[in-house]
Amino acid sequence: QVQLVESGGGLVQAGGALRLSCAASGRTLSTYIMGWFRQAPGKEREFVAAITRRGSITDYADFLQGRFTISRNSVENTVVLQMNSLKPEDTAVYYCAASLRASVFRSTTSYAYWGQGTQVTVSS
Asked: Pairing relation of β-strands 10-13 and 118-123?
């Protein structure tokens, strides 16, 4: 099994940027398809971004409009979500997730392993 730990969340003003990192213990992350999801208060968890094992394919939620970038750092065994031009509606707890064989990147049910989440708050 793999244990996932997110970091990098915090409070930022609208228009600012944050860099979230997902670190793993127990396994190398290149074994997994990796995803980022988020959940705002009172809302369902929603897909943000995903990346394949070799990083050759990425997928992003339509609402992002190019503001976020997902990438892998194989040396550090992390997956990073760079978030730019943040908006108040991006406020949520952000989770990273790992899957051995996700058939649908955007579905929470494709991912067997989840981190505890990191809070992102964007003020207006």
From this structure: parallel
pLDDT tens, residue by residue, 3-37: 999 999 999 999 999 999 999 988 899 999 999 99
DSSP 43: S
Let me know how long the chain is: 124
Q: Are 4 and 96 in contact (CB under 8 A)?
A: yes
DSSP state of 19: E
Which helix H or strand E contains 20, and what residues bound it? strand 18-25
Among 15, 37, 18, 30, CA closest to 85? 15
Find the distance separating the first CA and the last CA of the chain, reported in whole Å: 40
Is residue 67 within 8 A of residue 15, CB to CB? The reply is: no
Q: Which tokens is 45 given? A: 């968890």
Q: Which amino acid is at 117?
A: G
